[in-house]
Amino acid sequence: MSVRKLKPITPGQRFRVVNGFDAITTDKPEKSLLAPLKKSGGRNSQGKMTMRQKGGGHKRRYRVIDFKRDKQGVAATVESIQYDPNRTAFIALLEYTDGEKRYVIAPNGLQVGQEVSSGSGVAPEIGNALPLSEIPLGTIISGIELRPGQGAVMARSAGTFAQLMAKEGKFVTIKLPSGETRLVLADCLATIGAVSNSDHQLLVSGKAGRSRWLGRRPRTRPVAMNPVDHPMGGGEGRASGGHPRSRNGIPAKGYRTRSKTKSTNKYILERRKK
User: Fold this and answer.
1) What are the Large ribosomal subunit protein uL2 C-terminal domain coordinates in residue numbering (predicted)?
2) pLDDT tens digit string along 177-212?
């Protein structure tokens, strides 16, 4: 994995840092696993704008990802590692021995030609998915389920990983990428290894236009607004805006909004550090 700094041949390239894409092995996606992706432009089903910074961007097609890893007991070979415009991580195309093809989130270090499989009784090697109860303590994992059979919901973005800390009864203790320590049912599946493309955090867009290609529209600073639009708006001259807060007046920067009576609080052993 590597990143490249471009030569400043234009103002937009001056600070640009791009991905070397060393891990990518092909630029042609598997056609049978593509689906259309409609743009919402930040509007809901009534046509009302609910997300102000969404809209535009390059046309994409969705890659159907197998988050459940429910094809158990059948070995698969890694055909290729590919770029996915819909997520920060790279994806791997698997071909199973019965001929079926599926995309999965590629873990770091997965090689083309490698054999992977999922289910109970599988070796804890990179790319394999197995129940948390069978994974050795201290293992780096990603793509973790919260409920058995739900499909991966935690540690899915580029470079993220969790660590298996302890096992007790029907629960295991996991340290999540946020720093939170949490109990998860031991029957839930997880993939061995950290997620690929850890260099993603080092990239620099270089110009505003690249945000537009990604479908991100400009965001107006709250202190530049009027009091009618935002709690931080208004004031004579250039006012500081006071304590940072959202449009609804809820403070930012560490204000706790989680319900004290939420039923899943008992599974969180330690909250993340600020």
Assistant:
1) 124-251
2) 999 999 999 999 999 999 999 999 999 999 999 999
